[in-house]
Amino acid sequence: MKSEKIATLEQLQADLLHSYREEFPHDEPTLCAFAPGRVNLIGEHVDYVDGFVFPMAIPVGTMILGKALDDSTTSTCYIRTLSKDVGEPKSVTIDLNNEISPLKSPKWANYVVGVLALFLERTKPSKKLPFRILIATSVPIGGGLSSSASVEVAMCTFLELLYQNSLSSAQQLSKVDKALLCCKAEQTYANVPCGIMDQYTACMAEADHALLIDCRDNTSKPIPMKNKDVCVLVTNSNVKHELVAGTYAERVRHCQEAANLLGYKKLREVTSMKELENSRDEMPPVIYKRARHAITEIKRTEFGARALSNDNYKEFGRLMYESHESLRDDFEVSCEELDQLVELARSVDGVYGSRMTGGGFGGCTVTLVAKSAVETCIDAIQKGYKGTASFYVFEPSDGARSVALNKQQ
Predict the structure, then answer these.
(1) Which structural domains are found in the chain, ordered by start?
(2) DSSP class of 134
(3) Distances (CA, A) of 281 to 6, 253, 272, 286
(4) Which residues are tagged catalytic?
(5) pLDDT, tens digit, for every residue of 340-395?
(6) C-alpha pair distances (Å), 60 with each of 53, 289, 302, 358, 375
(7) How far is CA 23 from CA 17, 209, 244, 316, 363, in A?
(8) Residues 63-98 pLDDT 10s
């Protein structure tokens, strides 16, 4: 069993151009933006407690293609997705003369509409520009690879291109501002209480590097991952999860309750496990477990970045297994399928470490593995996994960017 073939930027753009020309046969798009998904190597469920996270961008992502419309004849923005996974309807229109509010339906559009509303609010352009766009993504939706942030950051990148000649330098967004805007859009329009990791990675990532992000002050440090004999294998359990359903929000509340009981604003401020142990009898057992995960995971992430920067894959792998066990036992966001995938990977020589990644309750595992052992690992999982998994081999990729339009496609 081999890994899934990843659609290239050229293939994604070709599909979008074909669809655009079918829908608008007498027109041609002029702008194209791309933003990647991400996989988090370690540091799970700690971005919203101001912790450290350690993701990398991946070569799958979201592309948005379109153009500005003649603003003398319309104030309407036309937004359409090509995704088969979001249900109907697949298009929405937004009137820029009206207040842009969250939509009751379709829910997928709020990830786009929210960015549009906050971009206009933040940049305050002298003239609002109507547009039409088509959206396509190669990120597995609901797999924990940040399909939503990929859409948001691609949309914000498209808007930057759309307004590139209309905004002063003071109105333009820094990369961190852009990540914060997209994060706020997901929180307020899609009603997902996410941290900033996904959007930040999509904006700031560099090829051949993972990104150690300090979520307390939104600073980051690129950590080289240039050993071409080692790669990242992402295994999709193909068990779907829905963060809006409440489990994610519940974990956010649990962590905040723990911080409040300890007398801190966020759990990042807890300096040691001894401090938590001293207060164990004062908090419900479930709150203690959530706090124990967060505090130990922050330390694991710091140690992990240091290990990877020294090419100490064995140590990084050990920390990955510890992370998974903590997510399984203390944070309780794993599931039988993810646990099985991790254990099957662990049984293969050449695998350094494996863990669940993303929100949990399905989605993907991330495995650090020698390239020479990738196919053996895939075969072992394929034979032992009770479900049907999909496999992706990734190397660290660049963040959001404009893409030149190839009109010959």
Answers:
(1) 9-222+397-402 (3.30.230.10)
(2) E
(3) 50, 19, 17, 12
(4) 198
(5) 999 999 999 999 999 999 888 888 999 999 999 999 999 999 999 999 999 999 99
(6) 20, 34, 27, 16, 21
(7) 10, 39, 33, 49, 33
(8) 999 999 987 788 999 999 998 888 889 999 999 999
